[in-house]
Description:
Elements: H1 5-30, E1 34-36, E2 41-42, H2 44-52, E3 57-60, E4 65-66, H3 68-77, E5 80-83
Parallel strand pairs: 1-3, 2-4, 3-5
Helix pairs in contact: 2-3
Amino acid sequence: xxxxxxxxxxxxxxxxxxxxxxxxSSNLASNHSVEQFQGRLLTGEDIEYCFRRKVDxxxxxxxxxxxxxxxxxxxxxxxxxxxx
Length: 84
């Protein structure tokens, strides 16, 4: 394979595009909203409340009881549940 100016130019363009894509995805990640849940029982209403407030992830203590409806609503609405 012969290294030409055109090949170098194409490689530089590919690298710059990949770096810009990484920058955009990191900007999206910075908009990620996380909230610590304090209650002992997580319900579907709690999930809906967080969704309305644009919370992406709820951190939930291990001892918290999660109702089946809360699990279903979190899946439906895209609110991640992180057990801590």
